[in-house]
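Q: Please design a sequence for this.
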């Protein structure tokens, strides 16, 4: 595939993957792509765990679903992230960032705005939104043939110091290389972030993965091959919109936004 085409087609997969293991060859290609990322002094501070074991995937899925349900039921999720939610194409077009909530079960649709609104916790709970999202998330993770943990070597990753920042940049670039490679391999990838938001849950995952003291667990992903016509989750969103050049690029100084044309 053309390189720019790969960049344009890279995206987050919200839906399920095929029930087919990711070949060892493809797993190693993903890891090679990661390792080709730049890093300060070629320090390669990233580490990865490839997780295929069913019991481990199910445990991580259980933790992912539970934390999703908890964060939503407690209102923390919507409180923290409300500013990124868009509810119509027009709203999305006006902002050109955030995520467009464009898929809701029919009984929820009349309440779209209220669901995500400031005083909607009671309604959310009545409509069982935390359970729906939690269950769907657990199923999506458990049904993903490959989970990937990204870690950093703590000798390099020293938060507050420049090497901490450099390590984060390097890991971000390594992960982007993996993400782009999934496009070439007909695969999809999605962040599993809710366990990170609940410190005890994150500790559970660290124990499950036997993360040693000298490594820091930074992020978790689910991966797999994409079905040709992927079904959408019951509650879903899309986020392919991007800002115009004039909204994020300047010419020479911050005083002059770049023109769009
Ligand atoms: C630091 C970071 C955290 C993210 N967390 C999540 C997440 O928890 N769940 C999810 O589905 N996507 C997550 N994403 C993916 C973004 O939502 C996604 O990249 C963005 O909406 C743009 O959509 P696209 O990747 O399809 O282009 C995360 C991305 C980044 C860089």
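A: Design:
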């Amino acid at each position: 595939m053309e390189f720019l085409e790969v960049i344009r087609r890279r995206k987050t997969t919200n839906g399920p993957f095929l029930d087919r293991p990711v070949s060892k060859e493809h797993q190693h290609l993903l890891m090679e792509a990661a390792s080709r990322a730049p890093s300060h002094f070629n320090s390669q501070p990233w580490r990865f765990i490839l997780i295929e074991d069913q019991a481990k995937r199910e445990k991580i899925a259980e933790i992912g679903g539970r934390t999703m349900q908890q964060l939503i039921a407690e209102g923390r999720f919507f409180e923290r992230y409300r500013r990124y939610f868009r509810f119509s194409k027009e709203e999305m077009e006006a902002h050109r960032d955030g995520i467009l909530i464009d898929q809701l079960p029919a009984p929820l649709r009349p309440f779209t705005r209220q669901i995500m609104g400031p005083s909607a916790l009671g309604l959310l709970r009545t409509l069982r939104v935390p359970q729906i999202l939690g269950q769907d998330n657990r199923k999506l993770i458990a049904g993903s043939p490959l989970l990937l943990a990204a870690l950093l070597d703590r000798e390099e990753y020293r938060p507050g110091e420049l090497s901490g920042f450099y390590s984060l940049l390097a890991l971000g670039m390594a992960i982007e290389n993996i993400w782009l490679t999934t496009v070439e391999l007909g695969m999809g990838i999605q962040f599993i972030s809710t366990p990170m938001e609940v410190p005890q849950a994150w500790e559970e995952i660290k124990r499950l993965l036997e993360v040693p003291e000298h490594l820091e667990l930074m992020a978790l992903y689910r991966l797999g091959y994409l079905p040709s016509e992927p079904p959408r989750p019951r509650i879903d969103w899309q986020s392919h919109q991007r800002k115009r050049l004039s909204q994020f690029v300047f010419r020479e100084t911050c005083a002059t936004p770049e023109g769009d044309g």
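Q: Thanks. Anything notable?
A: The two ends are 27 Å apart (CA to CA). The pocket of flavin mononucleotide is lined by residues 11-12, 99, 190-191, 193, 239-240 (CB under 6 Å).
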